[in-house]
Specification:
Blueprint: H1 9-20, H2 45-48, H3 53-58, E1 60-65, E2 74-75, E3 81-82, H4 84-95, E4 99-104, H5 107-115, E5 121-122, E6 136-151, E7 165-169, H6 173-188, E8 195-199, H7 202-210, E9 216-220, H8 221-229, E10 235-252, H9 257-270, H10 273-281
Parallel strand pairs: 1-4, 1-5, 7-8, 7-9
Antiparallel strand pairs: 2-3, 6-9, 6-10
Organism: Leifsonia sp. NPDC080035
Keywords: Signal
Protein name: ABC transporter substrate-binding protein
């Protein structure tokens, strides 16, 4: 998914200037997270009693998040985390009778914080992969594909993009796997490679397409659809959604918290809370009916 690096003053000024162009409006949607999604969730005492003693004593969960990936997780006008995954995390905590402390961090620091015991788990649109499962266990809660977008009126085929510039958010699956694989196929066939334009946050990747710096962007399907909806008609879908894969909550290997989270998520699926959250944010296409553990390794 994502990473941010310290930027020199000149670069920061450029980003500020870009923000003033008003290309993308990622204010909280009218159906979004302005209400408390967890307010109607009742605590499950049986599940709460199964929590690790450390969490029961603390009365809270520390959750690692990189809040730069709308509509999944991002910042509201007051700098607070919002998004459908924030609503979902709050609902999980309410089911367990806990509060949530969001530990905002670079994406690539979240799994180390989980394995090191600093965070109880991460919630930041992690794609569950067999490679990541070597470090953590995943509780799966959503299926997302990859979807490209191009400028309105510009036809781009993700399967025939040799020689094009494609904007991605740094360290996303699209950056590390998908676009490089497509580019290698191009060069293997004697064609021009795809030039990946890497950005620290998704808004900058989106704006690169709107401003004509990139031919297309590649991101997780809910992120791309949200970017299109917020572009004032300047973006369109490029092709169809492909390479669907599970999102998962990373938890320390063999943690006693993992089965509790799985049961809490399944309870939210069964009582309809999960679907209501997804519907509110317009991302219900990726809904699952069963909360699994380490779905990637199960094929």
């Amino acid at each position: 998914m994502r990473i941010r690096i310290a930027a020199p003053a000149v670069a920061l000024a450029a980003v500020a200037a870009l923000a003033l162009t008003g290309c993308v409006d990622n204010s909280t949607p009218s159906g979004g997270s302005t209400t408390n999604a967890a307010s109607s969730v009742k605590k499950d005492d049986t599940l709460a009693n199964q929590l690790p003693d450390k969490i029961k004593s603390a009365g809270s969960l520390t959750v690692g998040m990189d809040n730069t990936y709308p509509p999944n997780e991002y910042k509201d006008d007051n700098g607070q985390p919002v998004g459908w995954e924030v609503d979902f995390t709050n609902a999980i905590a309410a089911k367990l009778g806990l509060k949530v402390n969001y530990a905002i961090a670079k994406f690539d620091n979240i799994i180390p914080s989980v394995t090191g015991g600093k965070d109880d788990f991460g919630m930041s649109s992690f794609t569950d992969t067999t490679e990541r499962e070597q470090q953590v266990d995943f509780v799966n809660y959503y299926n997302a594909g990859i979807l490209w977008a191009s400028a309105k009126g510009k036809t781009v085929d993700p399967d025939n993009a040799c020689g094009l510039k494609v904007a991605v958010q740094s360290t996303t699956y699209e950056d590390t796997d998908e676009v490089p694989a497509k580019s290698k196929k191009c060069t293997d066939e004697g064609k021009q490679p795809i030039q990946a334009l890497r950005y620290d946050n998704q808004d900058d990747a989106t704006n690169a397409v709107i401003l004509g710096k990139a031919d297309a962007l590649s991101a997780d399907s809910p992120v791309t659809l949200y970017a299109i909806s917020k572009s004032n008609g300047k973006l369109q879908e490029a092709g169809k959604t492909f390479d669907e894969a599970p999102y998962g909550i990373p938890v320390a290997k063999n943690s006693k918290l993992t089965p509790v989270l799985q049961k809490a998520i399944q309870a939210l699926i069964d009582d309809g809370t999960y679907k209501k959250i997804l519907d509110k944010w317009g991302v219900a296409d990726g809904a699952v009916t069963t909360a699994e553990i380490n779905a990637a390794s199960k094929g």
